[in-house]
Amino acid sequence: MLVAFSLQQITALKKENFNLKLRIYFMEERMQQKCDDSTEDIFKTRGLQSKKERRNGED
């Protein structure tokens, strides 16, 4: 009976461990996506600033 209980506990812990790893994976994916989005915004903003500077320099 003790062995069966221990096996159930091990199985439950393995499932929990898998679920936590999966959760971490998706959280890291979201963080990376947000970081990429922010980086794109920075480059777009810098690109617009450079265009404005070039236009002002031509005047």
TrEMBL record:
This is Centrosomin N-terminal motif 1 domain-containing protein. GO terms for molecular function: gamma-tubulin binding; microtubule binding. The keyword Cytoplasm applies. Keywords: Cytoplasm. The keyword Transmembrane helix does not apply. Its main location: cytoplasm. Residues 8-45 form the Centrosomin N-terminal motif domain. GO terms for cellular component: cytoplasm; microtubule plus-end; mitotic spindle pole; pericentriolar material. It comes from Acanthochromis polyacanthus (spiny chromis). InterPro entries: CDK5RAP2 (IPR042791), Cnn_1N (IPR012943). Transmembrane segments: none annotated. GO terms for biological process: centriole replication; chromosome segregation; establishment of mitotic spindle orientation; microtubule bundle formation; negative regulation of centriole replication; regulation of mitotic cell cycle spindle assembly checkpoint. It is found in: Cytoplasm.
